[in-house]
């Protein structure tokens, strides 16, 4: 069900001298069935990386805000 279909191999092996130099298609597997899953993995990786970067930026900004507020509160208590 999940196996890619291989291209049909021609059954006639009689080639004339005139057609002897034309390239014969290979019977190897093509990469076409793997394009969709690879693209999905790349997109999910990009989205997760963006979310991780957003969380990191938010954490840094909250930390800076907490340090500034702590400094303001401690300086107000000293007066």
What topology emerges from the helices and strands here?
Elements: H1 35-78
Summarize the structure.
With 79 residues, the chain is an all-alpha fold.
User: Which parts are unreliable, with pLDDT below 50 for 5 consecutive residues or more?
Assistant: none
Cα radius of gyration in angstroms: 31 Å
Counted by DSSP, the helix tally is 1
Report the span from N to C terminus: 76 Å
Which strand-content bin applies to the residues? Answer: under 5%
Mean pLDDT: 82
Outline: rod-shaped
The helix/strand series, from N terminus to C terminus, equals H
Helix vs. strand class: mainly alpha
- Helicity level, as a percent range? 55-70%
* Count of distinct strands: 0
Sheet having the most strands: none
Structure explained in plain terms:
- This protein has one helix and no strands.
- With 79 residues, it is mostly helical.
- It has a domain at 52-79.
Task: List key phrases describing it.
rod-shaped; 0% strand; 1 helix; 79 residues; mainly alpha
